[in-house]
Amino acid sequence: MPRIFLAALAVAILPLAAQDKPAPVNTPPRLIRKVEPVYSEEGRNKKIEGTVVLKVTVGTDGRAIDIHVMKPLGAGLDQNAIDAVEKYLFKPGTRDGEQVTVFATVEVPFRLK
Asked: Which domain CATH number covers 101?
């Protein structure tokens, strides 16, 4: 399972307002559907193992967009990681009850069996 780290969405615990309204609730996106990446033939032949680290934007529709490689492995594995994450589905993050766009870091591991 890929590890997902969230950035740019601070969860704040605020005191109740004078009107005793509940504090705003901020939630990070949550992975709903994951797609396993395809091991490239070149990566398999070169016996490359490791983790591709991607910076993604999770949109209000729960899709990963604007995907950038932060830590590559090469041999076609980076693109295969991007292709897999493009098919992920997230429950969108929220701020004050509204769905918001959030940056996240996604790690996609490649291990030979």
From this structure: 3.30.2420.10
